[in-house]
Automatic annotation (TrEMBL):
The keyword Hydrolase applies. Keywords: Glycosidase, Hydrolase, Metal-binding, Zinc. This is Beta-galactosidase. It is an enzyme of class 3 (hydrolase). Zn(2+) binds at residue 160. Its EC number is 3.2.1.23. Pfam families: Glyco_hydro_42, Glyco_hydro_42M. GO terms for molecular function: beta-galactosidase activity; metal ion binding.
Amino acid sequence: MNILNTLGQHVLFGGDYNPEQWPEHIWHEDVQRMKEAGVNLVSVGIFGWAKLEPSEGQYEFDWLDRVLNLLQEHNIGVNLATATASPPAWFALKYPESLPVTRDGVTLGFGSRQHYSPASAVYREKAAQLVRKLAGRYGTHPAVKMWHINNEYGCHIWECFSESTAQAFRGWLQKKYQALSEVNRVWGTAFWSQTYHQWEEIQPPRAMPGFYNPTQYLDWRRFSSDMMQECMQLEVDILREVTPHIPVNTNFLSVAKNLNQRELAKLEDIVSIDIYPDPASEDAALEVAIQGDWARSMRDGQPWILMEQAPNQVQWRHINAIKKPGQMRLLSYQLMARGARGILYFQWRQSVSGSEKYHSGMLPHTGVKSRTWQEIKQLGQELKGLPLLSYQHTAEVAIIVDWDSWQALEQESHPHVQLRLMQQVQQIYRTLHRRNIAVDFTTSHHDLSKYRLVYLPSTPLMDQASAGNLKNYVRQGGCLVSAFFSGITDEHDHIQQGTDQGSYSPGLKELLGVNILEFAPQQDGTVLQLSNGWEGSMWADVLELNGATALATYQREISGPAITCNLYGEGQAYHMGTQLTSQSLQVFTDLLLENRNLKAPLDVPEGIEVVRWQDGTLFLTNPTDAPCSISLPSAMTALVGTTEGHTLQLAPMGVAVLQPQSHPTEVLTPQ
């Protein structure tokens, strides 16, 4: 299926539409306003299960028929939800065993949302029945352009500790390991008298007196993600059986540790993601950039859909700041620059009751005179008037994020329990984003040959295949920057075999050219002075050179190399034995970029973001408070913004989309 041909060439624009919250006469006003705002796609029925099936086995579709027909009459496409994200009250009452249970044994009740255990057999049965009914009824409806599966898997419930889930966990382990003896070996149960002699003895890692078994917890996280993946697979299979011509997607919630998003993304036709940066944060633009690159990377460069963002403010932070004038538009173009083919929102009309009544809507409480509505309408019409844009992305820098290792890194009983993968990722990404260097997110199993520079943040868990892949990448001319506490354990989170030969991370020892003798975690606030003027914190590897060259050494309490470089094959492998401070890491990154001849697509003032596509299209955004003047290498056609000769003036919160004047421009027929 060519997903982009199926969805059409226009940028998708719209949001979640919840007509069940409103009297029917409002629906007609809604579609008129949607057309006024340039809306061409809405997600319908995400939380509609209670209205679709008010009692068990009794389905009421007449209202949804009228909604879809009305939208079709106004040429507004529908991303039709399977409505399985929030089971109705009758379901919770009749099947209490389906409710999620916390680690402490508390059963979570009805009255919010996502109140189901992902492993619940009865939940899956009733969800499958609903999905099949919807697919059979609406699979040929001309308004339906996509299927929206569930909603934000893992947002509230990513694990359940009920007895039925414990049984499912044992079944998962039996399928994975076959023999109980293998579970005992992999989990290292000889420690602390944890050996199992019957499958029934195995339980989830509920509340315990002390530290839990690390490998048991790792398998538990894998199992819990797999349970959500099975729920999604169940719906995907039904939809592809009944409606093979309609693409399927689910909306991920940001960059999430709780769910192996890359694995779930394999099940859908196009990635969708919800992105909610804090507009009051000075890092709002950085947050959006990271999450946009993450969304694109989940299916290795395929365009994707921003399924939800806030038109203005949210309601779930302690303090819910409003977006500045122009900020919503700017952040939207940032995401388009990173491959978003759809710009959608939660939600269309702002609710007047319920937990999200203070969450902004495209059409706010204060109506069409509001600033939010005016900005929504401006953006929708602007996107509608854009010519055909052919997204082609190329990044020559990548950051590795391995989900299994992420789970292992942030466990208890480690040398430093405050290590956080995404803090490291953001720090690395910031240094590249500041220089307008395009970034992909990848894994240690992926082919890395197209990248000229690859960062490996702390990745303690690493199998032999991954270590071999990294060595092969560098051997063939790549440049790897490896952080401390990487390659320490195998895929079972056991200390790597061969460590007793004198170094941690034996699988990377030859590549890095150092022996890692011991770890020296640092107290909060400690600053490690390095010989070249750089500074480190949090951690210090005690290193011994074994072929590498020291770029910086420790100056005080710890002695020896801190930052090293090793020539390996045709490439270079760097090891960061400490967490460089932001300023020092920026200096290091700048040296790496110069060494690898990696440059920004355009020389712009500090704080201005520029993204270049393969066809020469440039996206420029100014999230700062100051206007700026940018010199262009040649005269360009402004699709958004204005140029004067070879100069672009960019106001605060300003946006420009430019194409080379030689670029063929195809203006689409307005919808």
